[in-house]
Structure formats: C-alpha cells, structure tokens
Amino acid sequence: MNRKVSLIGAPTDIGAGARGASMGPEALRVANIQSMLEAHGLEVADRGNLSGPANPWLPPVDGYRHLKEVVAWNRAVHEAMYAELALGRLPILLGGDHCLGLGSISAVARHCREAGKKLRVLWLDAHADFNTSVLTPSGNIHGMPVACLCGHGPQELIEIGGTVPAISPKVVRQIGIRSVDPGEKRFVHEMGLEVFDMRYIDEMGMRHTMELALATLDEKTHLHVSFDVDFLDPDIAPGVGTTVPGGPTYREAQLCMEMIADTGRLASLDVMELNPALDIRNKTAELAVDLIESLFGKSTLMRA
C-alpha cells in the first residue's frame, strides 16, 4: 500500500436532502484522522478544503437539484483527486455528500486509463445511488453518482472524467445495500450491477461477501473504496442524513475493512455523508476514523 496519503476536504451538502454534510471534513479532523494515519507510519499531507458554490437549497429543475453547483463541486474534486494520484499519493476525500463520488471516481478511472491499470470500486452504502432524473423521487444528486459514472445522467456530469462512460458497471461491487427505489431497482438489474445487499450478507456472512467482492484483484488493480457512513447500522452511526435500519454491525464493518486492508491494494478512498449536525458528541466521526484505521492495517493480532 502507498505510504504517502493526502487528505482533501470537500465541505458541501450540495447533492443531499438534509443540511450538515458540509461539516463532515472538520468532524473527521476533530476525530484525529491525520494523527491516526501518522501513527501507522504514513506520511500525511492535509491539503485543506476545496471551495465551491454555496448550497442555494432550491427545488429540483428538470429532475435535478442544484445541477450547476453539483457540476462545479465535482469538477473541483476531480482535479484535486487526479492531481494527488499523479503525484503518486493515496488521496482520501473527506466529504461532503456522496454526489462527490462522481468527481472522485472519475478521477481514479482517468488515472487508471493513463497508467494501464484495472479498476475495482467498492461502494459501501445503504443505497445503490443508481437513480436518474426520470427515476428519482427527490432530484437529490447524491442518489445518482453511480449511474452518472456509468454514463446515465446529464451531459455536464457524465463528461467530467473526459471519457463517457467513466467506468463500466462491471468494476463496481456494492456492499450493504438495503434501500433502493422501485425504478432504480429495475435499472440496477438491467445494467448488471453487482450488489451484495444486506439479505446476502445476512445469509452468507460478511467474510464470504468480501471474498467475492475482492476476488481477482492483482498487482495491476487499483482498489478504490467509496465509504458512505450510512453503510453502517444507525444504532452505531447516527450522524448521517439518510439512516436506514439494519446495516452492518461494528464487527461486520471491521471485518469488511480488515479484509480490504489484507489485499494491500487500497489506492484511494472516499469518506462520505458524515453529518455532524445529526451526530451525538462526534460519535459517528470517531467510529468512521476507527474503521479507516482498520483499512490501513489495524488488527487485534499480528497477521502475515
């Protein structure tokens, strides 16, 4: 794993249905994400926060809320993530709402194309985020980034990575899904997205789920993890705007992160949708940092 890490704050809730995710980057810093990473021998550069348009909090237009502002933020994220990858560093995007996964993953995909690498994206989330303007009940673009990455969305968004589609659905593994809109469900099936929903995890266990999600990784694979904090059960992670009961437990989440770490392939990370306004004494941010520590090699015992 790359030992040079860059933190990039994206303080916006532009694509969300609740205010507050804009405070997520600072909450993660307050929870000592930088010192935790440094304690594991990583060289950490905090690049500070990106800037972009304020949230105008307007109703949807033609099925999209705040499209112009979402485009601006995603362009900023794309350029920042791409610049860190070009420097040979491991970027961690501190969100911000999950619409920013579009800018982040399109930058990773661009880097992989230029470096001749394969891409695997693990989308840890309660939601499939595969809506379109036709399917969405809300117009909130944080429900659309995976669809946009796969080429289904407004021209201004799907072209951000320079290639349309930015990725194939085949590179994505979605884990922890338990809330999908009816039309979105059909679209996920049509596109062949690989989804390990909570029923699958209940029946087969997190270990088997992660073995499949991580299968066929090799030294030419760039592994990107897009971690939406609402992936976790809200009993342990209340600080998100779109809680869905029945998510992974603390131990299931730890196993997920530890198995990712075991691959040694993690090369970029998003930490999204943390909403301190809905949290209890920064509990969710501290849990997120604890899980990120496992992603970077924390384990109970020495393991080969």
Give descriptors for this structure.
globular, 8 strands, 304 residues, 8-stranded parallel beta sheet, alpha/beta, Arginase, Chain A, 17% strand
Report on the structure:
The chain has 304 residues and is of the alpha/beta class. It has a single domain, classed as Ureohydrolase domain (Arginase, Chain A, 3-Layer(aba) Sandwich), CATH 3.40.800.10. It is 37% helix and 17% strand. The chain contains 10 helices and 8 strands. It has an 8-stranded parallel sheet with strand order 2-1-3-8-7-4-5-6, sandwiched between helices. Strand 5, helix 7 and strand 6 form a beta-alpha-beta unit. The protein is globular, with a radius of gyration of 17 Å. The model has no long low-confidence stretch (mean pLDDT 97).
Strand content: 15-25%
Mean residue pLDDT: 97
Low-confidence stretches: none
Structural class: alpha/beta
Largest sheet: 8 strands, parallel
SSE topology sketch:
Layout: E1 4-10, H1 24-30, H2 33-39, E2 43-49, H3 67-86, E3 90-95, H4 101-115, E4 118-124, H5 145-149, H6 155-158, E5 172-177, H7 182-191, E6 194-197, H8 198-213, E7 221-228, H9 250-263, E8 266-272, H10 283-295
Parallel strand pairs: 1-2, 1-3, 3-8, 4-5, 4-7, 5-6, 7-8
Helix pairs in contact: 1-10, 3-4, 8-9, 9-10
Précis, in short:
This protein is an alpha/beta fold and 304 residues long.
